[in-house]
Specification:
Elements (H helix, E strand, L loop, with lengths): L1 H25 L18 H4 L2 E7 L7 H16 L7 E4 L40 H9 L20 E7 L2 E2 L2 E2 L7 E2 H13 L5 E7 L17 E5 L8 E3 L17 E2 H12 L7 H12 L10 E4 L9 H4 L24 E2 L3 H12 L5 H32 L4 H5 L13 H15 L3 H4 L3 H9 L4 H11 L18
Helix pairs in contact: 3-6, 6-7, 9-10, 10-15, 12-14, 12-15
Length: 486
């Protein structure tokens, strides 16, 4: 009788224990128990495929310090998360760490009290090898199309997960690059479609830090590609630099440039703080959206595009997770950890650098003279571009209608332009007569797209540009010696 009773109790206990484990697994996406052993939830790398990452900083110049710092910091998070260097591909011009302006040679920081994020970062594609062609070839796994660099590509398979992170300046339908031409939205989408058609990934996630970055996907990224993307801003607004001189917390006094970007440091700091087995893409999106949200004087609307059902995926599928964060599970109150009390419009962050450089230099010194010259060249270039675009609009559409046509914003869900080749042709036509758009001039891409949408021909654009720009500034910002941006 005792044996039968004991056996019955054991059977009941086994059933109950099985039920508890099953119930925990069923609610895995909703709640995690910190006391649970990770093996209950974790899958080994073979079961989730290989994690791949492509990280790209699209700028050069010390005044753009923050973009390479963002990318290097992202690398450190992925590395600590368990990704191997052979699966992380880094694009950056690599001209910041040892720039004479850098107060800590060989060191990059991404926050005022941050650690060095530069150490150990692979130099896969640097300098003139940071090109659109190499970026696309790396994503597609096409080694034959690579020129220069390490030759590393995303050699992924059907069960693999890919994460792409870009940080730089942008404009409507375009992302900046340190080389020419720039990266246009239609070409990126076609590359992603080609990658999907090859059947060489299970899911792919894209994070983009740039002004008007929503326009990269708005109306042109179809669903059904197993791609999920978030952007630092919607299709019409700026993104923001952070950890800049004069903000709280202030940067170390020896720095005169912004150390990070608001959207970028929001997702990176969130990722390095938590056990990413417990945080989903959706939860991180909500955290970053809150931190980056429009404030009285700054902020942007973080957006999401593509296959939103992927938002239920846990971040570790793409980023791995730092084993030291095992007990730091996701909670809704992440926003209690503010990034910064202020931010600077991405397009004005270079002015912050040049002004602080001028302000801190000794009176009469060559450094002060050079800083003043740089500041004046930047301002001259900006005024020239703004005035030229406005005048072209008036010449093409009349004094009364010109500005309205240039500022037209299409309804949500529509692509920026009907004919992307027209946009690129008119960009080149403008630059031929008026000089390079450069990083600031990308703010006028929507105006040029609207000129296309209005049916203006190349010859009409050339004639108007020639009239608007009998000459253009001779400074480096307007120079065409490196080629056209389209």
């Amino acid at each position: 009788m005792m044996i039968r009773y004991t056996s019955g109790v054991l059977i009941v206990l086994c059933v109950l224990m099985s039920s508890v484990v099953d119930s925990r697994l069923m609610v895995d996406n909703l709640i995690r128990w910190p006391s649970d052993h990770p093996s209950i939830f974790e899958s080994d790398d073979d079961s989730v495929g290989t994690r791949w990452a492509v990280l790209i900083a699209g700028s050069s110049g010390y005044w753009n310090y923050r973009h390479q710092a963002d990318v290097c910091h992202a690398y450190q998070v992925l590395k600590k998360g368990g990704l191997k260097d052979e699966n992380i591909i880094v694009f950056m011009y690599d001209d910041i760490a040892y720039d004479e302006e850098n107060p800590r040679p060989g060191v990059l920081i991404n926050s005022p009290y941050g650690h060095d994020v530069y150490a150990g970062v692979p130099k896969d594609y640097t300098g003139e090898d940071v090109t659109v062609n190499n970026f696309f070839a790396a994503i597609l796994g096409n080694k034959d199309a690579i020129t220069g660099g390490s030759g590393k590509v995303v050699n992924s398979g059907p069960n693999d997960h890919i994460f792409i992170f870009y940080s730089d300046h942008g404009g409507a339908g375009v992302l900046g690059m340190p080389t020419y031409p720039y990266l246009y939205a239609d070409e990126l989408i076609e590359t992603l479609k080609e990658k999907h058609a090859s059947g060489t990934y299970k899911s792919l996630v894209v994070y983009i830090e740039a002004c008007e970055s929503g326009s990269i996907f708005e109306g042109i990224l179809p669903e059904g590609l197993n791609i999920y993307a978030t952007t630092a801003s919607n299709a019409v607004e700026s993104s923001w630099g952070t950890y800049c001189p004069g903000q709280d917390p202030n940067v170390p006094p020896e720095y005169d440039t912004c150390l990070g970007d608001l959207y970028s440091v929001s997702w990176i700091e969130d990722s390095e703080r938590h056990n990413l087995h417990t945080e989903s893409l959706k939860q991180q999106y909500e955290v970053v959206k809150t931190k980056t949200a429009e404030k009285p004087f700054y902020g942007s609307h973080v957006m999401q595009y593509g296959d939103k059902e992927l938002t239920q995926d846990m971040l570790y599928l793409y980023m791995g997770t730092n084993p030291n964060n095992e007990n730091y599970t996701y909670v809704d109150d992440n926003s209690l950890h503010p990034t910064s009390s202020n931010a600077v419009n991405q397009r004005d962050a270079d002015l912050i650098h040049f002004w602080n450089k001028f302000r801190k230099a000794s009176e009469g010194s060559q450094r002060k003279i050079n800083a003043q010259k740089q500041f004046m060249e930047v301002m001259s270039h900006r005024v020239h571009l703004d005035d030229s675009i406005k005048l072209i609009g008036k010449l093409l559409f009349g004094i009364e209608k010109g500005l309205g046509v240039l500022q037209t914003v299409r309804p949500t869900g529509q692509p920026l332009v009907d004919d992307w080749n027209c946009l690129k042709t008119l960009v080149r036509t403008f630059e031929k007569h008026c000089g390079s758009l450069s990083q600031y001039g990308m703010k006028h891409m929507r105006s040029i797209a609207n000129i296309c949408n209005a049916g203006i021909t190349t010859n009409q654009m050339a004639e108007a540009s020639a009239q608007a720009c009998p000459s253009f500034p001779s400074g480096p910002w307007s120079s065409l010696h490196r080629g056209f941006s389209a």
